[in-house]
What we know:
It is built from three helices and 19 strands. The chain starts with a helix and ends in a 17-residue tail after the last strand. By secondary structure, it is α+β, with helices and mostly antiparallel strands. The strands form three sheets. Strands 2-9-12-11-10-13 form a six-stranded antiparallel β-barrel.
Amino acid sequence: MVRRMILTLGVVLVLLTALGFVKFRQVKSAIAAGSSFQPPPTAVTSLVAKQGQWSGTLSLIGSAEAVQGVTIAADLPGIVDKIHFESGQQVHKGDVLVELDTRQEHAQLASLEAQRDLAKVNYARMDGLVKAGVISRMEYDQATSQQKASEANVNEIKAAIDRKTIRAPFSGVLGIRKVNLGQYLAGGGAIVTLQALDPIYVNFGVPQQTAAQIHVGRTLHVTNENAAGKVFSGRVTAIDSVVDETTRNLQVQATLPNPGGALRPGMFVQVEVVSGAPQSVIALPTSAINYAPYGDSVYVISDMKDPKGQTYRGVRQQFVKIGPSRGDQVAILSGIKPGDEVVTSGVFKLRNGAAVQVNNKVQPGNNPAPKPEDS
């Protein structure tokens, strides 16, 4: 009985050893096959890097502001008697906009003018009498004072009448009308806004680290999505004397022509300031850059060899220093050299040493100044 058990255990042990050896050979073969397996090439597009010149520019966001802009208001209270403008109308300096009711003032003016005329007659009579020695000098002085006071009263009521005729203080474009005929306007009541649009200011902030590149007289170019395809050129005309403590930006003001009023006060605009001499860069599509917290990189295509010594087209990851961007392009300041073939799309699928197959039938956007619908 014992011999039979020992024999059975021996047979089982031999079978287990044989199965383990077979499995070991299978796993070893699978590992060897896996280490020599090459995934199929990844389809990418590529571009040969070329050296180019980019003029030094700063790209910033600004806001348009009227050179002159006011809310026209009533100086004195009164009833709106006449309105001489329409909303959005172009007006010139001195144009009458609104007339308030002045019937009471005109009645007062007639009374005061009568008093003035009487005072003039009395003054003329007193002048003759004082020369003849009939009246005292005190009576003559009183007549003189009364004549001057009556003249002043007339001028005062005329000024009040004139102040109730509201005129445009400068040439510009009116906003939306805020009054109606017959409406009572309190002193300071708003009537309409008036903006001078040509020329126009553009205000923008410059980071303190680049503030030294901005000087009065610097050329700049302004674009706005509401005026597609139109570029407004102007110059820096003023620089603030202090840096904002919250944003650490220096406020800059530029003045530029605005024919037709295409730019309106309050609009956001894109500002490009010419900041220095041209710079030698390599321009690549933004899709070629692999952005990462530890550093930005691109993939350069070159001939490589696999473990079996066979040559294939593969990529190596190359870290780069990037500069400013324009449209679809970004400037590469260092890391690659002219003549390098760089992957321009599909970088998220790649790793160092991966095989690639270049297919440039469809290329990503690479326009330094794309139209809005293409960007």
